[in-house]
Amino acid sequence: MDRRAFVKSVTAGVSSIAALPAAGQILGGTFSSLRDDLRTARDESGFWARVRKEFLLNPSLVHLNTGTLGATPRKVIDAISAWMYEIEGDPASNVFGALGGRMEEVRGKAAEFLGARLDEIALTENTTSGMNAVAQGLSKSLRPGDEILTTSHEHPGGSVCWEYLAKTQGVKIIQIPMPAPVSDRAQILQLISDHITPRTRVCSFSHVETITGLQMPLAEIAAITRPREILLVCDGAQAPGMLRIDVKALGVDTYASSSHKWMLAPKGSGLLYIRKEAQERIQPLVLSTGYNAYTAASGTRNVAQILGHGLTMDFHNAIGRDRVEARCRALSNHLRRRLGEISALKLLTPTQDELSSGIVTFALRTGKNQQIYERLHSEHDIVVKVVPKPEYNALRFSTHVYNREQDLDRTADVLAAMLRA
Ligand SMILES: Cc1ncc(COP(=O)(O)O)c(C=O)c1O
What we know:
Layout: H1 3-12, H2 23-28, H3 32-39, H4 44-52, E1 62-63, H5 74-89, H6 91-95, H7 98-101, H8 103-114, E2 121-124, H9 127-138, E3 147-151, H10 156-169, E4 172-176, H11 185-195, E5 200-206, H12 218-225, E6 231-235, H13 247-250, E7 254-258, E8 270-274, H14 303-319, H15 321-340, E9 345-347, E10 359-364, H16 369-380, E11 382-383, E12 385-386, E13 394-398, H17 405-420
Parallel strand pairs: 1-11, 3-4, 3-5, 5-6, 6-7
Antiparallel strand pairs: 2-8, 7-8, 9-10, 10-13, 12-13
């Protein structure tokens, strides 16, 4: 019996995956039927209804928390399952043979997805690990009293790495107090310039802020940092798969992201970009033996998951990355408009296109965010995010390609009723 037939015979006995095709069969034209259907979709709503069919989300669920975790397309999950079965037929030969070798194709796709060179991209587990790699890789060149400039709106995944260096090496963290909402781009740039000192070695900012969804003007920030040889380190957890990314145009020195959010990849998938010219200054252990997915320093990897990570990039490309961004933004604007009509809510996200994204955040003037979150979930099957800054008493809403206008309208109606009561 050949390997494919064997995989099929094994899976045939397992009811939940009895219909699982072999990985090669899934991959043959993974998203070709999606591409064909999208080409002939009768209108915009037909287009997005077809895209929505690719997901395993519970039909009644309104998932407005892609900022925490996205939903992975069914075909990606099927392919990962098939690869896992295939691997177990001959584990060592598969993981360290041709199948495992295909992880490098994923790195190539990732480089293209972010606008980087292949030798600037590593496949990681998440943003936190990427940020830690950068900070640890830099640690030898930092002295006590050197300053890391960051903001009061960073996620722990982008800040614990600096806190550790502050504790162990005496570097100083300077936090810009971020307004919510910021008034305009000039305000951000002024705040940054005002906080840079001769001791600033690193500026560490989110690309899209976890609190308000603010999109930082990175290219303009790079124009401030690069001439001063300050390293611009970016926490990109919330951007790839939502915004079209070109790390070269952004001018960042490093970019760490979590593909399991907006890129809709399997959980535990991330990317790390380190600009070629910055690689001398940043030498993390995990990259010390090269950027390949399998190296002496990175060790054995989860091949099936990494190949699935690559498939999610094909998924975005099948729809069109500009189209995905436009859809995330259009849905976010729709929700912002509807929630903006509720007097008990106050917008914390900037309104300008260039400063906003697929995330919108509102503070509650009445009621408690945690309680409203729980009621939305338990009574209406609507999942949002409690903003982890109690002083704002806010809720965050993320909108991706599987969300629909009617679900956003229902969310607004339900919230309006709850906040009136
Ligand atoms: C801005 C930002 N950075 C980092 C993280 C952490 O991501 P991960 O847990 O995938 O490392 C998050 C998660 O929400 C985030 O929003």
